[in-house]
Amino acid sequence: MQLRAATADDLPAVQAIYAHHVLHGLASFEVEPPSLAEMRSRFESIAGGGLPYLVAVDGGRLLGYAYAAVYRARPAYRYTVEDSVYVSHGQVGRGIGRQLLTGLIEQCRRRGYRQMLAVIGDSANAASIELHRACGFTHSGTLRSVGFKFGRWVDSVLMQRGLGESDRSPPAG
User: Fold this and answer.
1) How far is the C-alpha of 72 from the C-alpha of 41, rounded, in Å?
2) Nearest alpha carbon to residue 137 among 102, 92, 96, 100
3) N or C: which end of the chain has fewer CB within 10 A?
């Protein structure tokens, strides 16, 4: 398996992976899968903004993807990003998510970001919570019943990880 920067050619597979998660899981609070055109727009916003967007591929097959997005637009948040990691249905448990998240952390650290946040859909999402814990994230809080999907209330779990010097020094520039 290889990690590499995503390209526009990867977006049909990315859209298919995400659509499965939207339709069958609680990792995303979207209820309708975004179109390929919408996924292109999101990709261009992230990659065009200089943030990392990675894919895991094996033998030409896209197994998962991860990206970092701006946490919030206000200037004081400019050193903080939020991660998203999605693995293809049937490929979970092979370490793909860990490789993607580890690569994403390193790319964000190299770009000078100081904090990475995870907003994990569903407090019962043990796989994502454990993935983030294994990659150095700590639990920062739980927002109870902030989403309603599949006929039930769903929590969001907040996790956080320092990058580089984290908050031990002011950022350069």
Assistant:
1) 18
2) 102
3) C
3-state helix, strand, coil in the chain (%, to 5): 35, 35, 35
Contact indicator for 6, 54 with CB cutoff of 8 Å:
yes
Write out the two tokens for 123.
Answer: 């407090």
Give pLDDT tens digits for 1-40. 999 999 999 999 999 999 999 999 999 999 999 999 999 9
Tally of CB atoms within 10 A around 157: 20
Check pLDDT > 90 for residue 91: no
Taking only the tens place, the pLDDT of each residue in 93-107 is: 889 999 999 999 999
Predicted TM-score (pTM) of this structure: 0.96
Q: Report whether 124 contacts 145 (CB < 8 A).
A: no
Do the beta carbons of residue 149 and residue 29 sit within 8 Å? yes
